[in-house]
Amino acid sequence: MSVDLTLARWFKSSHSSGGQDCVEVAFLEGGRVGVRDSKDPAGSILIFHPAVWDAFTATVAHEEFNRSPA
Questions:
Q1: What is the DSSP string of 12-66?
Q2: N or C end of the chain: which has fewer CB within 10 A?
Q3: What residues form DSSP beta bridges with 34?
């Protein structure tokens, strides 16, 4: 998949403490979503299809990743 990232506007969550241990997100062409490590902006970027990103964020919003230790 080839996605033009030259005009991508990367941002951190409003819940971010402003430190360097964050991920950054950019909304890309075709509804795709890019995710990268804020410590390494020139590094690898994960690109998600819109439906996959929507499913992930819905799961996070419903706190389905918060599990009690076994």
A1: --TT--SSSS-EEEEE-GGG-EEEEETT-TTS-EEEE-HHHHHHHHHHHHTTTT-
A2: C
A3: 26, 47
Find out whether 41 and 47 touch, Cβ atoms under 8 Å: no
Q: Is the pTM of this model over 0.85?
A: no
7-36 pLDDT tens trace: 899 998 777 766 667 889 999 998 999 999
| Tokens of residue 49, six digits | 């299809």
Domain limits, the chain: 23-61
What would the two tokens of residue 53 be?
């990103």
Tokens at 17, concatenated: 């403490």
